[in-house]
Every structure is written in C-alpha cells, then in structure tokens.
Amino acid sequence: MRLLQTIGWLWLLCMLTGCTSQPHHVRMSKELPSIYPDYVDVTIPVGIAPLNFSMADDEVTTVDVTIRGSKTGSMHVNGDYADLDIDEWHQLLEHNKGGKLQVTVVAEKNGQWTSYLPFNIFVSRYPLDEWGITYRRIPPSYKIYSKMGIYERDLSTFEETILYENSPASGMCANCHTANRTSPDQYVYHLRGPQGATVIHRGGKDDFLKGRNDSIGGSMVYPYWHPNGRYCAFSTNKTAQMFHLTNNKRIEVYDTQSDVFVYDTETRQVIKDTLIMRADWAENCPAFSSDGKWLYFVTAHQQTYPTGYDKQKYNLCRVAFHAETGKFGKQVDTLIHAQNIGKSVTWPRPSYDGRYLMYTTLYYGYFSIWHPEADLWLLDLQKGKTRPMNEVNSQRAESFHNWSTNSHWFLFTSRRENGLYTQIFFSSMENGTATKPFLLPQRNPKAYYRRSLYSFNTPDFTNKKVKK
Prior knowledge:
Elements: H1 2-17, E1 27-28, E2 35-36, E3 43-44, E4 54-55, E5 60-69, E6 74-79, H2 86-95, E7 100-109, E8 112-115, E9 119-123, E10 132-138, E11 149-154, E12 160-165, E13 173-180, E14 183-192, E15 197-202, E16 205-210, E17 221-225, E18 231-243, E19 251-264, E20 269-271, E21 281-288, E22 294-301, E23 315-322, E24 327-336, H3 338-341, E25 344-350, E26 356-362, E27 375-380, E28 385-388, E29 398-403, E30 409-414, E31 423-430, E32 433-434, E33 438-439, H4 445-451, E34 455-462
Parallel strand pairs: 1-8, 3-9
Antiparallel strand pairs: 2-4, 5-6, 5-7, 7-8, 7-9, 10-11, 10-34, 11-12, 13-14, 14-15, 15-16, 17-18, 18-19, 19-20, 21-22, 22-23, 23-24, 25-26, 26-27, 27-28, 29-30, 30-31, 31-32, 31-33
C-alpha cells in the first residue's frame, strides 16, 4: 500500500511539473545564452504577449528560466522551452513599467546543466496603445495565388483571427488592407483577379469599386488615408516581373507605368493632377502627412525594361493638399534626391506626431521585399536630416513599416532570420534612436517559424478588434 501511495505522489508530481528535469551539478558559463528568438536586451511595451523562447541549440533538452523585475516580482518556468504564463507575465510587466526584467537561463544538454550570464529585457515607459496588428500572410509564389489571406493578431496573447481568406475565390490576391490611423472603423483593401474590386469600408458600410478604373488606366493600389477620413490616396500601377539569371536576387518586380491620385469617398470622384501624373515619370507609394496638409510620394524617370531596370531610382517628394477644396498645391518639393544618397527611395511613412518620416532605400526600383540591401532610413522633418537606421537594419531585406498612433513604436518586416520569408519585428523610438527590434512573439516560436512556409506582409497596427 505504501509503495502504491508513493507511486501516486510521484505521478501527481510528474503531472504538475511536466516531468522535466531540475538543475543539478550546474556548470557556470561566462557567456550570455544563445536563445531563439533573440530577446536579449530588447525593449518591449507593457501588455505585449510573453516573449517565449528556446535555446538556439537543438540539442538542449530542458531550460530552467527565472525572471526577476527590477522593481518587484518574479516568475519561473522549466520545460523544453520557456513557456511563460500570460497572466503572470502581464502582471510582472505592469509592475516593472519603466524598469527592466533580468532573465537567468540554466540549460541542460547531454545531461549537463549550464548556467549562463543573465540578460535584460527593458520595459518601456511608453505604452503601445494598440490592441493588435493586421497583416497579410502569403506563401512563396511568383504568379499563382494559392491559399493566402488577411489576418489580425491580438498582441497581448497569441490569438490570430481570419479577416479574409481567398479559399472561396481561389487564385485571387487580397492585398493592401489599410486602416485609417490604425482604426478598423475605416479601411480599404483590394482584390485582384477577374472579379476583383477595391473595397472601401467607411461609416459602417462597404463601397465596392471596379478592380480596374479606366479613368486612371489601372487598379487602385498602395492606399493611404487622409487624417480627416474623407480622402484616400492611391497609386495606379502596371506591374510586371522578371527573373535574374546571375544576380543574388531572384526576381525584380517593377512598373511599366504608375501614377498617384486621391479618391474622394464622399463624391466618389478621382482627383488627378498633372503634377503627380507626369508623362515619362513613375509616381508611386503615396502617404499623407500627419496633419493632412502634404501628400508624400516617390517618383523616378521611367526606364525601359529590361535593359534599364537598375537605373530607375526614386526620389522622395511632396505636394501640398488642401482638404477643404480637394485640390493640390502648385509645386512639388523634392525632399530626398536619389542621386545624393546613391539609392532609391520607397514606402514613405510619416509618424503620426509629425516629427519623423521613415522610408526604405534600395539600390534601384521600389519593390524592396526582393532586395537584400533594402534598409530603413529616418528623416527628421523638423531638422531636415536623414540617416540610415543602423540600429534596426540587418544584412537582409527590411521593407514595409508602419507607426503606432502615439509614434513611440513601429513595426516592419524583415528577412533577417533566413533570407526567404518576411517576418514582423517591433521597435520603439527613444530620443530619436530606435531600440533593438524583437520578433513577433509566438507560443512556441522555434516550432512556429520553422514550420511556417508563409511570409508576413504589409503589417499595420489596429487599435481594436476588427468587426467583420
């Protein structure tokens, strides 16, 4: 009977602890732990989902992790990866806002336990002020759009919700889901294909526009809302692609023609102007300033493809926009000359507080996702100075980016992990400098990202859950 009781207690203990081994005969290391994702010394907002991680070494069988707050509180986990309790994690972050967490890792490999130097996770004093993010997830493809969709993700948990999938309309591409300043009450997205359309959601209603508009010579893509919600800027592009034979790049996506215009959602009129629809020039990637008084865009002299593909370099420009009349100003200002920085400019995104404008540079063209050299740059709109964001850039492509509404946080996509798939990273702005970026948290990040054959695309923040 006593033996059966002992077995029963051992079984219960096994169920409670997950049968993981506990540290013993620990060897001390003078190195930081090599973990995946790399969350060492990152800065995070209160409310973010737990930064679960594994040891980068696949031969590690168990990790024992202790996290202590610089102000108060601690938590401990033990398992094959650091699987942190969501409620306990959120409480620890809240109690250490403006402080830091010290993380100590002890790992078991081949029966030997090693304790590593502790590392810090800094808890920003700036809130994120966003419920979550939206993004498109797309498989590797050059022409055929298999299963793909637009999704939303609660940033405080690991919950992902489908907003749209193309399963009922196989072969159609859903793209450019764009909210007005992170508000899901007003958004636009485009369905590409034989039955395609541009869908504008405003005032609780959907307005369906033809996928191709003859008056502008193509479809309405790359949208950006005016802050008053009435106007939405678009570009219209005749897009093509070609493949490299000897280059380190696989594919080049380019436009044989593109222009920029503004759509008035109240009058359903297209507002065009020869200043931003010039012959022999390719205008692209529009974005309104935070106060709505300017329309930023990029423009380049149209080259002949395929021979002139590497000569098409885009400048960053702006033109005044008068919302009260729906008219443009009389001149275009060039803010960044491609020849001055030796690179092409794409995807201008002004911060909502009006201080900065973030953009992407690449050697030529504008479709940065296929360019390993693509980097993020920052333009200080008050000082007129621009610089590469070396604190967040990598040796692989950094591309599409967006700001949080309080302008203290931004997200962007990068292929730094494997060079093949774009993933979402976050960083904060501290006194004009970005903090070390961190990867979008997942429940079991190593398993999730290794098994995923999809790229995250065109992400943006959303201040609340999208109503479908």
